[in-house]
Amino acid sequence: MFFHPMDFLIIIAFGISLWAQFKVSGNFNKWSTVHASSGLTGAEVARMILDRNGLYHVPVEVVPGRLTDHYDPISRTVRLSEPVYYGRSIAAISVAAHEVGHAVQHKQSYGALVLRHRMFPIVNFTSGVAPFLLLAGFLFKQFSLLGLGIIFFSFAVAFQLITLPVEFNASSRAKKFMLAEGIIGHNEERGVNKVLGAAALTYVAAALISVLELLKYILIFTQSNNSEE
């Protein structure tokens, strides 16, 4: 009853997502074995770029796990996983510089990031409620609930789409920072591009899945309404 032809596209997109995650892991592993010519650790690179941008108050902390790196906008803290914090590889310094890129975006009130932060409380609520509204709409054939569920789900989709320019911009900043400060040479750009490009692909795949799911629900809603008329 819940099957729809667009499920094929969603399955394909899900496959792309799995492939993207595999690429992230594979590229990180590969370039983790290639030492950066600067000899700096991820933590040192993060601290250097933060200080160059006047972000002396933003701490760099180590967190357990692998690929758990992130920038916390609430506490304004750059958190790096152990392999990145202590690592001296192309992969480590690329990831560290990318997370610092978010801190600089925050300082400069980068438009997409500001919008993303403002949307977060709304999306946090709507993404939790949307599945129940959609399920109730399907089970009880209540098109008003289905429509409301679609509206709520669309906020989550918009959030993921807005995330794309935020992530791409942070990666672009990371490369520019590292080249400008002499942290990497031009011969090391390829490795940086591989690491950051694979990570960006995961966000693209996640956004694609969400968009296809939203289109599926909209088509079901439209067809159901037409059949009732």
Automatic annotation (TrEMBL):
Pfam families attached to this UniProt entry: Zn_peptidase_2 (PF04298)
Transmembrane regions: 122-140, 146-168, 195-219
UniProt keywords, alphabetically: Membrane, Transmembrane, Transmembrane helix
Name this protein carries in UniProt: Peptidase
Organism, scientific name: Thermaerobacillus caldiproteolyticus
